[in-house]
């Protein structure tokens, strides 16, 4: 995983974002963590579905299209769940309740600086 910066509409979001870069990181995600801090965020890409097996804390899942526009939000996804969005190219995982607090809703454009020059 590698750190990245994230903003919405040009305004930086107060998140400590990590971007998955390897298959093993994508598979593991938050598994085994007892809690997720308020600023923690994980971007899983490519990804259109996530699971919360082996997790202890609920999360918010923000699904992004290939242009990093929010296409769906699943709030408070508890342990042992599966959720997906057919249009998603990536999933942003946050502490439960953070997506609403950050104003993340369908249509919001995110800018992610992960050092890639795509």
CATH superfamily: Protein of unknown function DUF192
**Unreliable segments (pLDDT under 50, ≥5 consecutive)?**
none
The structural class is mainly beta
Give a short account of the largest sheet.
Answer: 8 strands, mixed
How are helices and strands ordered from N to C? EEEHEEEEEEHE
Total discrete domains: 1
Taken from the alpha-carbon principal axes, the silhouette is globular
Rg estimate, integer Å: 13 Å
The total count of strands amounts to 10
Fraction of residues in H or I helices: under 10%
How far is the first residue's CA from the last residue's CA?
18 Å
pLDDT averaged over residues: 91
User: What is the CATH top level name?
Assistant: Mainly Beta
CATH topology: Jelly Rolls
Task: Report what the structure shows.
With 118 residues, the protein is mainly β. The protein has a single domain, classed as Jelly Rolls (Sandwich), CATH 2.60.120.1140. The strands form two sheets. Strands 1, 2, 3, 4, 6, 7, 9 and 10 form an eight-stranded mixed sheet that branches. It has a two-stranded antiparallel ribbon with strand order 5-8.
